[in-house]
Amino acid sequence: MSSLSDRLAAARRGDEPGDSPAADDAATGAESGAPGAPGASASAASPASPAGAEGAGQPTVAGKRRATSEAALSARRAAAAPAGDRIDDLKANVHAELMRELGPRLYDADLDTAELDQQVRAVLAEVLAAQDRPLSSSDRARVTQEISDDILGYGPIEPFLRDPDVSEVMVNGHASIWLERDGRLVPADAQFVDEAHLRRTIDKIVSRIGRRIDESSPMVDARLPDGSRVNAVVPPLAVDGSALTIRKFATDPLTVADLISFGSLTPQTAEFLDACVRGRLNVIVSGSTGAGKTTTLNVLSSFIPSDERIVTIEDAAELQLKQDHVVRLESRPANIEGRGEVTIRDLVRNSLRMRPDRIIVGEVRDASALDMLQAMNTGHDGSICTLHSNGPRDTLSRMETMVLMAGMDLPIRAIREQVASAVDLIVHQTRLKDGTRRITHITEVERMEGDVITLQDVFLFDGSLGFDRDGRSLGRLRPTGLRPKSLEKLALVNVTVDPMLFMADRIA
Q: Domain limits at 27?
């Protein structure tokens, strides 16, 4: 058996590259004097040897090397940690510091948005400069933008709200964000940090228009400053985390020319609708959720002459009328004590005392239908509203149902006579399978025949042309060949329509 000195010498030689790691282990055992380690008894028997003294008081060269290697490995592991984790930690620290620096100035209603943005970015630059963590220029720009979006905007969804190609943003819990692009749903490469981060963003949106969302009131309809429609649902109603849906409105509202270029309308149908609005016909825009009813309502309202007084009534103000004389009213939910609610129906009744030439209701969904019919039948011609339905006939059925919701014990025939007298035109819009939004029916409401309201399609969507290679519908609106009875009513107010628009053998 070799002596302790020989083994220690071997251990020193093992410090050179290529030597056996077993020698290192032997040397370590010798230096530690652990029971059972090779040479432990020999070390005790020869305490005076120089090598034994070295092993008793100091780590061997191999031990030093191993400690150094482990420290280097830990440093490499820390450096190799996911960049996203390090950036997130830095963002959290900078965000907290920024909140301490700015404090209540972030919520000062009198502070101009541009001035607040300038202050936030100035403080953000100072805070980042004071951080002891080195950042590349790209990481610095990323952190600056993301924290600015969090403080001044709506966190990870802010870039999508700025993207003109995104028409809808859907958040299904903090880790799942979906977008609608070109009528198609696609997942977004972004997410909120956690549920609390998402809830803060929702609270920021709804609090700006004086609304609230919590466990006692877990659903809310709201809007962004640009008019984009917002709906939020939080636990316990939302089982998998808070749900946020934002239907964007274009900064520059779509015009009738845009709808024609998209294929939603045709020049001939646009000319006819222009005449109907100027001629003060009462119009209902119907369709399913997301069919584009509000956009069409905006376009129809653009046909209203600028010298008329318009009163708009909405749950969340999102209409973008360009006329000068517009009064915008918005309903209000009850407060935390269950008081102070102002409904669409209350606003419709009040609008009759405001001397309106036109009443535009963003959406009729309840007993306000009765008051809307009353307004249309009491001299407020030219009113426009939207309503959810599957088709023109269903539009009338839903109108009857909502009138009954008012609690009036009215016979069905009386309600139908009111509807037939009040409503002149139904414009029905559909979101097709390919994601495009098309007006599929322009239908005239004629009169009562027995107990049934008669309808007449003036323009009808023809889908027999099929689809192109990309699956896009080639269908078009075509005239049915029937001349609308409302042309006589239009003539009485000096609005004329070219009868050639209704020829059945031409594409509308």
A: 4-79
